[in-house]
Amino acid sequence: MFQTIGKYTALCGSTLLIAMAAATAQAADGQVEFTGVINDNACTINSESVKKSVDMGQVRIADFANTVGATAGETPFSISLENCSGSTLKNASIKFSGQQAATDATVLGMVGANQVKGLGIQIADARTGDKLPLNTASTDYVLRPQSNTFDFTASYVRLVADTPGADGAPDTRGIGTGTVNALATFDVTYK
Predict the structure, then answer these.
(1) Domain of residue 102, CATH code
(2) Cα 34-36-37 angle, rounded to 5 deg
(3) Choosing a second label site near 177 at 20 to 30 A (CA), which of 125, 141, 147, 159?
(4) In sequence order, what E strands does the chain have?
(5) Which pLDDT tens digit goes with each residue over 91-140?
(6) How many domains does the chain have?
(7) What pLDDT is stored for residue 19 in this prediction?
(8) In sequence order, what are the residues at sequence separation of 6 or more whose Cβ sits closer than 8 angstroms to the Cβ of residue 10?
(9) Distance (Å, rounded) from C-alpha 184 to C-alpha 79?
(10) How far is CA 24 from CA 13, 17, 19, 27, 31, in A?
(11) Is 90 part of a structural domain of the chain?
């Protein structure tokens, strides 16, 4: 019985010390900001698709017809999603954006110094072959459980035609030679 009272007495003494310390503490104003995101994304972007590099290879100027919009060097690429639940959101669309070409806002323009002139990069939906203009969502893809891969193509696209000279040979070439560097970002919208 004595031990129980002793513990009780010690506990009361500790509580009294804590109460006295709190009474002598200084008060100060402060702020705590909480941030976060709640989303209803049906999938996560596969790590290999987060930052992708597509090698378009080399093409010759002669590979292009002399008309604005002519393409060459079609190169496939894909974007993969994983951990798809599909429980609430059943579809997804993908929208590409980036530096627009000066003469055609629907295609990617070149970025950086010393880039080839007269060309852009055109993206197309591999399902249909239809051009996918920048800043325009693709038609919906049906999401399957777990993993999904969406296929696209990228092509060089002629933006300027050659100007013929008096002898019929090009007087001014619409396409120059040099390096190609374009950068696109993509957004996935779940529905």
Answers:
(1) 2.60.40.1090
(2) 155
(3) 125
(4) 44-45, 71-84, 91-98, 119-125, 141-142, 146-158, 163-164, 170-172, 184-190
(5) 899 999 999 999 999 999 999 887 889 999 999 999 999 999 999 999 99
(6) 1
(7) 47
(8) none
(9) 13
(10) 17, 11, 9, 9, 22
(11) yes
Q: How far is CA 75 from CA 28, 36, 53, in A?
A: 62, 39, 12
- Report pLDDT for 72: 95
Burial of 132 (0-12, 13-18, 19+ CB in 10 A): buried
Q: Where are the alpha helices (DSSP H) in the chain?
A: 2-24, 47-50
Q: Is residue 28 part of a domain?
A: no
Which range marks the domain in which residue 97 is found? 61-190
Does residue 116 fall inside a structural domain?
yes
Residue 42 CB partners (closer than 8 Å, separation 6+): 84, 85, 86, 87, 88, 89, 90, 92, 143, 190
Highest mean predicted confidence (pLDDT) among 36-40, 42-46, 47-51: 47-51
Going by DSSP bridges, is the β-strand pair 141-142/163-164 parallel, antiparallel, or unpaired? unpaired
Q: Which residue has the tokens 């893809």?
A: 141
Phi and psi at 69, nearest 5°, equal: 100, -10
Q: Is residue 26 part of a domain?
A: no
